[in-house]
Amino acid sequence: MKNNSLGKKLRALRERRHLTQAEVSALLHIERAAYSNYENDKRIPSFETLLLIADFYGVPVEYLIRSDYAETPRHRKHAAEWFFQNFGLLDPGIQETIIAFADFQLSEKGIH
C-alpha cells in the first residue's frame, strides 16, 4: 500500500474517528467487504461512493483520490454545533440510521 494511497487515507480517517470498518460500512450503506477492499487498495469505489465517503469524513474528493493533494482534511472545530444545524437536512432514513448507531454506541458504553 502506498504511503498516501486512497486505502491508507480511508483507514486513517476511520481510525481517527475510532470506528470499525463494520460501523462505517453500515453508516454508509455499503458492504463491509467492499469497504475493506477500498482500505486495502484492492478495489476503487465508484464515483458515487467516493462522494458519499468524502462527505461522511468531511474531506474533498480530491483529497481521497489525488496522491499529491496538499491540503489535509478539514476538521470541524464545533462538530456538535455542525451536527445539530445539519441533522434536519438529512434524509429521514439516514437520520434513523444515525440515531440507531448512537443508541448502539451508548448502550455498548453502558450509558443507555
From TrEMBL:
Keyword entries, A-Z: DNA-binding
UniProt feature coiled coil, ranges: none
Pfam family, one: HTH_3
Keyword Repressor recorded: no
GO molecular function: DNA binding
Organism: Marvinbryantia formatexigens DSM 14469
SUPFAM superfamilies: lambda repressor-like DNA-binding domains
All copies of domain HTH cro/C1-type, residue ranges: 10-64
Protein name stated in the entry: DNA-binding helix-turn-helix protein
